[in-house]
Amino acid sequence: MDTNSGKILVCGAGGFIGGHLVADLLKLGYTDIRAVDQKPFKEWYQQAHEVENLRLDLQDKSACERASRDVRTVYNLAADMGGMGFIENNRALCMLSVLINTHLLMAAQKFNVDRFFYASSACVYAAEKQVTADVVALKEADAYPAMPEDGYGWEKLFSERMCRHFREDFGIATRMARYHNVYGPFGTYDGGREKAPAAICRKVIQAKLSGKREIEIWGDGSQTRSFMYIDDCVKGTQDILASDLEEPINLGSNELVTINQLVDIVEEIGGVKLKRTYNLKAPKGVRGRNSDNTLIRKYLGWEPSTKLRDGLEKTYRWIYDQMNSAGADTTMPVLGV
Ligand code: NAD
Catalytic: which of 30, 152, 189, 316? Predict the structure, then answer.
């Protein structure tokens, strides 16, 4: 896309990924940006004052029309979501995000939007393909026959189909990425919607600051995942939007770790060693999941490659500063101490 290619709408701009996307678009020279979220502005993780910021509830059709007027490109990153603790206990809320994507697609059609990006998720994948920790990475075709994560995953799969049919029937160039566990600074790290990397950073920091050298881990710690650093997510999102890829594609790292290994890395960054307890009753999601990146390598000649250790260090540092911003000692620990 060239930087004069028309107004860009970022939905969910007050959230984690949307906030980073707006910041990156500005860095790349795009100036005609409309940023929309339902949250009060003071709760946005990042707010760029040089763009048009609107507070709208995008489940509402007229709000989607307000947001989409004069727009050439839509990034839909707005959804009611969180980590496993949230999505396993709020299935109806997660499914209601279908209203956002549906009304946005209808508005995009009405206002002749050129390109439309939808943020889907690895939660669309069939649960039966994710029952062991020793995983075979998930290929795009593994989403069918469909048996996704209940609630959140079904909404994502349905919305992918809506995007597909709006492309086939109405000619909107819809693009879809299936994100695999995104993490980084300027995101949720407490309150119940946080995901594993941020939650573990927070718990390690809490243990460090309180002197109570213990950590509770959800599950038995041997479940496996891959985690994608936010910079890779933002680049991949823009590249997928600009591509000819009409089918949903994985956007994730394939650096597989157990949750115990994730804790090892964060402990090392924090310079502490904690006594681990395992909460086997807590929500833990599928047993193992990794991203097969064959297609993204083939079509984009690129894949997310930020090392988990490097991304976690930046994330830990940001969360540490947030938690410690009351004015106590904000200096980072010396590594390995
Ligand atoms: P986030 O919760 O930080 O951001 C989502 C934003 O959408 C929030 O700021 C929220 O206020 C906004 N929103 C929710 N309902 C809205 C509404 N009705 N109207 C307007 N705004 C509304 O989440 P995120 O991590 O930035 O995720 C962005 C997208 O990526 C979501 O669609 C999510 O499902 C998808 N995704 C994220 C991950 C991940 O690991 N973060 C993984 C897979 C998919």
Answer: 152
